[in-house]
# Entry
Amino acid sequence: MIEQLGPYRVLEKIGEGGMGEVYRALDTNLKRATAIKVLPQSVAADSDRLARFQREAEVLAAFNHPNIAGIYGLERSGTTLAIVMELVDGPTLADRLTGGPIPVDEALAIARQIAEGLEAAHEQGVVHRDLKPANVKVRTDGTVKILDFGLAKALEPAATVSPSTSMSPTITSPAMTQMGMVIGTAAYMSPEQARGRPVDKRADIWAFGCVLFELLTGKRAFDGEDVSLTLAEIIKSEPEWAALPALPPAVLVCLRQCLKKDPRSRLRDIGEMRLALSGALDLSAAGNAGSGASSTSARRVWPWVLPAAALSAAAAALLVLWFQRAPQGPLPQVVRFQIHAPTGSKIPPGTPAISPDGRTLAYPVTGPDKITQIHVRDLGSTESRPLQGTEGGVHPFWSPDGRSLAFVSNRVLKRIDIAGGGAREVVPQVTGPWHGSWGRFGDLLYIAGGVQRVSAEGGKANLVVVLDTKAGESQAGFPAFLADGKRFVVRIDREGASAIHLASLDSKDRKVLVPDVLSAPLVAQTPQGASYLLYLRNDALVAQELDERAGDIKGAPRVVIDRIGRVANPAIMPTFGVSPSGVIAYQIGGEFTTMVLSWFNRSGTLLSETPLDVTGQNPSLSPDGRLLAMDAAFGGDRDIMVAEVARGVTSRLTRGGGVARAPVWSPDSRRVAYARSGKIYVTNADGSSAESVLADVQGTPRSWSADGKYVLYDAPAQKMMLWLIAGGEPIAVGSRNGGSRTGRFSPDSRYLAYVSDESGRDEVYVQQTPPASGRVRVSVNGGTLPRWGGSSREIFFMGADRYLMSAELTPGDPLAANVPKKSFLLDAGAVFINLSYEVGRDGQRVLLPRILGDNAPDTPITVVLNWWAELVKRPD
# Structure
């Protein structure tokens, strides 16, 4: 026996099998007990197999699941190669079965944990390939651990297509003789394994069915006197179904589906069995199947389920219908149903997020108290439940194992475990769009100046998509990982156009997959293995086949849902979500048709409200305080609208010709400038003139000086520039050590207020207008959205906590600012598409264009199961 292997002191031998000897060892560095499996010389001496095993082991070591025994590393000493694993105390299921069958309740609880571990691994593309009672342990606290996950594939020779019976990760136990070790592997082989054919996760589903059958009956589902007879039983015989005890009907049906000999007829996903074992598919109204669980009793279950699902009697029945693959044709049935908010609440526009297994939906709900929380709802349930700690949360997105959610609240990226516990901060400030993606290796993608990558545990973020500002790229949004956990799709905006790009964590290179899109891209896989890129084109949700291996799209986009409806601006807030398992969820309902212009005093007291019949973004109050200009969606266009502040009457100022946005007023309140098609245009506010080019520059106008000399605009690469109306070259202003943006002239044109990230976070600065010099930082703990009132001696801004702040300025050399004062929470009790505000000329009133909780549309969610089956029927 070896005594030392690297930092591991070997204590005693605890087992052996076809894959090597297993020892208990002590990690002398971390002072923890481990298990060391010394691998056969056939692996250690074969460089090709060793390299292959190294790659597979790296994937396995990335697992972090409570029901999978972890892999800590590899150790090599001379010709000895060993894998270091988590030491799991407790009996194997093979040990437990020496005493006969396990009680039903306990057996189902054990099986549920096995299913959860398998599900998590399958979602990451790893198949066990040797699941059996000897490879499952139950700790004294009841936790189930699957051992040797994926090692059969990792250790097999490259030329083989299925694990051999002699190369199985078996550990001896009192329940198994030397002959039993081999038969113990053969007894759980799927028919395709027995025939030496390639296998996938459906082989694990078969083995799971064999294990569950044995737990319940104390006998193997397929048994023979030797290996050949056992394999023959698997191929030609059926288990002794009558030996099963009384089971919940859903469990019985799913167990039978696990053991279908044709893998195409087998249960598609182990998550379906996990749902049945957790009670989500409780079909007790159908009656108990009883101990004589024959094929006749199973047939009595399905006729009850199908009409119940067809009549939408319960969401659970709908899911069972989804699981049943229609025997009369090649395609499953497409099922649709709606989810509404709890009584007295609303589902505001947002992005419904579907868990990777397609079983659970997460979405924001605004309650009667006007507070928005993220709710989760199992599709087999009739009710949702709020996640405490997600107040103010928007755009949730799932972890790959479906156990956690990430979301943004008050510009902070957070994560929360579904099982309970508080939310944890991951990134203190994100800029949006706020939807992100969670990769299989624990990476989160989010937006802040480009696409940022950060560990789900927090820490330093790295920029993985850098915008090409010279090419006019201004914004990234909505990253979504592909299945490999390295590549992702992302929308990149240019002036007046957007495109879907394919990018990677490992490279700065990227390429355009789809030009001229508006909404976020999402990726979904069908059960047949095809991948699709989904996105909005005009008013339709379309799917285009994606070759993930080649990193390219194929064929023409095909309509999945026509006239999906836009309950919000899809460029900011897309309203559909997909899961890899064949589920789409999207929101339906009316547009935001009631925007309210709310005036507050500086203490936050509501003074008046005026409703508008159109909603918009980027509000700009005219210098005389009479009119408000915004950009708004009109069908498929985006144009400038003008509203009378006192009456709420709106008129459309521009019409067609590309996206028009970000209006600013001339100092006399008679003209409006705005960005369109890479230039800054201007037109009369009363619509009495045609538009003309004011500045032939690529940028977004932010302010027009009171003396009429300059237009301040945001240029690419977060540069801030002054355009001289009388002519001449633009003048760069703002920070020299960081990005600058969203500037505003003071009422007397002497000062510029703007936002810069030069300190590492957004802060508000004031500088003198060139050619004068001198500046001061106004905000203390973060700030955005600088605004002026009627005086150039007071500046307003929004603090990092979204409170309205104000600070007095003292002119001089140097320019000075007093400590900011806090006023009121800008977004309390409202739903914002794009939070902004304006300050009245008197400096005592604040105008918030907003949508009150009572006026926000209730946008129910439509869920579509097996959407891809309908797609193949539609030519485009």
Residues 469 and 716 are 5 Å apart (CA to CA). The chain has 14 helices and 58 strands. The two ends are 67 Å apart (CA to CA).
